[in-house]
Amino acid sequence: MTETVVLIFEIIGTIAFSLSGAMVGIKKGMDIFGVVILGLTTAVGGGIIRDLLLGLTPPATFQNPLYAIVAVCTAIIIFIPAVRRLFEKRHHIYEITLLVMDSLGLGVFTVVGVQIAYAADSGYSTFLILFVGVITGVGGGVIRDMAAGNMPYIFVKHFYACASLGGAAIAIVLWDYLPSPLVMLIGALVVVILRLLAAYFHWSLPKARQLEMD
């Protein structure tokens, strides 16, 4: 049961993050190869970092090509001219879709990271499990933004990492009291809701003022 739920979560997260990565590539004017690579790395990047941290080698992405295939197919669909033009001509649709897909991917992969850490070794420290959950959630987005030449969301956008941190913390607190599929659903919803509320109300952490250099 749990394995099936994790698989479903991972497929949803893969589609969401691949879509967000491909959309950023399109906005940057990349060709189809660039769009596909950005979609792929966004979708699987966090999971690869997670598996390396936990000593799960080779990472799941390379053991099961399903995730890469789903990510590549999603990116190709987004690159289809009719679909691409929809986002190119209607900026508000682009922004809303990117926000929703990125929030969904963040929430899903955060709780998947927590689940996989527990499955690997339930004796891991709370700090490690929390860190693994967050890095699984934000890792793909950081790779996407760096590859696209953007400042990573994790540093500037609506306490992006804090939403992941909150969802991971809730999942860890509830893990021993509720069935893991329910905990994952609750944790993912917390992340998504925090991200959407932060975007709507423009919540953000204090920022350093840019220094003027002579």
Task: Write up this protein.
The protein is mainly α and 214 residues long. The protein has one domain (2-201). Helices cover 79% and strands 0% of the residues. The chain contains 10 helices and no strands. It has helices spanning 2-27, 32-54, 60-63, 66-79, 81-89, 91-120, 126-147, 153-156, 160-174, 180-201. Helix 9 (160-174) packs antiparallel against helix 10. The model has no long low-confidence stretch (mean pLDDT 89).
The main β sheet shows up as: none
Mean pLDDT: 89
Number of H- or I-type helical stretches:
10
Distance between the first and last residues' Cα? 61 Å
Overall geometric form:
globular
Beta-strand content:
under 5%
Low-confidence stretches: none
| Overall structural domain count | 1
Total beta strands: 0
* Helical/strand content category: mainly alpha
Binned, the helix content reads over 70%
Radius of gyration equals 17 Å
Order of helices and strands: HHHHHHHHHH
Notable traits:
214 residues, globular, 79% helix, single chain, mainly alpha
How are the secondary structure elements laid out?
Elements: H1 2-27, H2 32-54, H3 60-63, H4 66-79, H5 81-89, H6 91-120, H7 126-147, H8 153-156, H9 160-174, H10 180-201
